[in-house]
Structures are given as structure tokens and as C-alpha cells.
Amino acid sequence: MKNYTTLKDISNISELIKEGILLKMNPFEFKDLGKHKTLVMLFFNSSLRTRLSTEKAAKNLGMDVMILNVNDAWNLEFEDGTIMNMDKSEHIKEAAQVISQYADIIAVRAFPTLKDKAKDESEFVINNFKKYATVPIVNMESSTAHPLQALADAITISELTEKAKPKVVLSWAPHPKALPQAVANSFVEMMQDLDVDLTITHPQGYELSEKITKSTTINYNQEDALKDADFVYVKNWSNYNDYGKILNNDENWMMTKAKLGKAKFMHCLPVRRNVVVEDSVLDSDQSVVIKQANNRTFAVQVVLKQLLENL
Ligand code: CP
Questions:
Q1: Which residue's alpha carbon is nearest to atom 1 within ligand 1?
Q2: What predicted TM-score, i.e. pTM, was given to this entire model?
Q3: Which of 53, 62, 106, 265 sits at 20 to 30 Å (Cα–Cα) from 281?
Q4: Could you read off the pLDDT of 192-241 as tens digits, one per residue?
């Protein structure tokens, strides 16, 4: 692996999942692999799980870690050929090369604008880091993708499934804020690569990009979609077609114990209780969200391990 910016960087997903599960059993097996190597983590946005699990994973591999909240640094310019006489103080061309001198791997979190669809879809932050940095880049959630979360989700389903081909449902939920499509996009793409029966359910108008959903079943009837589900992944996303807008916040789409049936409940967290999902689901044994969050460490650890092996 040379970079981990999209799921396309994975050459063999079942091997990667197996390796992640083995690392979970013996997290310090490769504790010297990252000795004298530094991971620089750059955050343009908030994080709890990604920040702590990535630091923990890097330390499990013996790496040093430096973290920069980019909003505390110089305001970066990403456009080429601009006259920088406004609020942007430093160009990505210099910044990425400079950071590369301090880092062996750079991890970046940069959410979408949710205003300029074309700009977000160009993945201008992560792709400019990839273009100008001289070390591998890891995506800690970009405008359109959250591949570390998707890998942790795949590990969680692989560990917990009792069936060769489980039914997995991605169910949209209401939310007061406009959220990105990144988690849903990567979850769908990851599930398409696994041996699962995948259904997406959401109100009409909340279709994800067809480039993501391809031929995946979409059922606008949530109750019907949830029938016989083994895993229900609940997530809000703002509108993709009327980009970044909240068009429907129907509370009837909230996940309840009655709707969940016997399925396991998944969510990437953070989650708003009694808006996205009711307490009785999160507080039940059917919720696997804490296990999912734990698997974030081993998902990123297996990615860092493969990147270190290729340095
Ligand atoms: N799921 C996830 O990425 O969590 P954080 O935003 O807290 O990192």
C-alpha cells in the first residue's frame, strides 16, 4: 500500500480484515516497525475516535506522533496561480513539502464545504496533499470518503456475523445539522466488496451519488427494507442532489427497538440520542457501536503497518 486515501488503495480486502483481527489479538507484535518514524496528523475538523485511535495505533507500532489542528496554523491556499493578497497565508505546495520533511506518513482530516459540490468531489484538500507531499497520505475522513471507518465497520461485521452472507441495511436517519455523505459512501463501497446482501433505505430525494450506489438495492420503505436484517447501520447524510441541504427531517426515520428487530445496531459515532436512534437501542446488547469504535484502532493500525512496510 502506497497511500490510503480511498478504498481503491486496498489490494485484498479479506486479507486486510484478517490482518486487522490478528493485530487486535496481538497489538504490539510489530512494536518496532515504526521505530524512529513519525506520523503527522492534520485536523481541519473536530474528532474524538479518529484522533485517539490513530495515535494509539501508531504508538502500538512504535511510531512517534505529532498532531496539528490546522485551524491553529496558517490559512492554506489550495488554488493554483492565485494572487494571495487576501486571508490565505501559505500555499499547499510549500506546506505539504515542509510537513513531509517532518513526517514519514501524513494523515489528514478535511470535511466537505457542503456548498460547492464540484470542489468537494474533487477532494481538493486530500488530493493536493497527495500531489505535493513526498510521503504517504492517509485519509482520516475527507469530503466524500471515510475509508478508515469503513474498514473498522468491515472488521466489526466480519467478527460478529453468524451467517456466511448477512443482510446489511444502511438506514438514513434525521439530524438537525447538515452532515457529509462520506461515511455512507465508504460504507456502501466497502459492503459492495464483501459477501453481504446490502440494502439502502432513505426518504425519496436522499439518493447518494449513483457513482457510489451503482446497482445496490434502494428501498424507500424503511420497514420493508429492515425485514430480516442482521446488521442495521444508521447514518444521517445531507442531500446529495440539492447539495448539502436538509429537505426532510422526518422523525419517523429514527431507529427504534421495534424497527431494529433482532438485528445488530451499528453507527460510526458520534450519535445524537433520541434523534438518530432511541436510547433503548443504544443501551441494549444489540448495539455494537462501542466494538466498532474499538476496531477503529486495528483498522488504522493495519493500514499504517502496510504503509510502513512499503516505505
Ligand atoms: N467516527 C468518527 O470518525 O469519529 P470522530 O469524528 O470522533 O473521529
A1: 268
A2: 0.98
A3: 53
A4: 999 999 999 999 999 999 999 999 999 999 999 999 999 999 999 999 99
Q: Counting atoms of ligand 1 from 1, which one is nearest the CA of 50?
A: 8
- Which residue has a Cα nearest atom 3 of ligand 1? 50
CA-closest residue to ligand 1 atom 6: 47
Find, among 232, 291, 282, the residue nearest to 259 by Cα. Answer: 232
With a 6 Å cutoff on the Cβ, whether 50 touches ligand 1 is yes
Indicate the residue type of 51. Answer: R
268 C-alpha to center of ligand 1: Å?
Answer: 7
Q: For residue 198, give the C-alpha cell.
A: 446490502
Whole-number Cα distances in Å, 34 to 64, 103, 284: 8, 12, 39
d(CA 220, CA 204): 6
In 3-state terms the chain splits into helix, strand, coil percentages (rounded to 5) of 40, 15, 45
Render pLDDT for 294-308 as a digit per residue (tens, 0 to 9): 999 999 999 999 999
| CB contact set of 124 (below 8 Å; sequence gap of 6+) | 78, 143
CB 298 within 8 A of CB 27: yes
Distance 140 CA to ligand 1 centre (A): 9
287 CB near ligand 1 (under 6 Å): no
Nearest-atom index, ligand 1, CA of 46: 6
pLDDT tens-digit readout, 175-201: 999 999 999 999 999 999 999 999 999
Cβ(219) to ligand 1 under 6 A?
Answer: no
Cell 447514518 sits at which residue? Answer: 235
d(Cα 61, Cα 302) in Å, to the nearest integer?
Answer: 10
DSSP annotation of 5: S
Q: Which atom of ligand 1 is least distant from the CA of 268?
A: 1
- 148 Cα nearest atom in ligand 1: 3
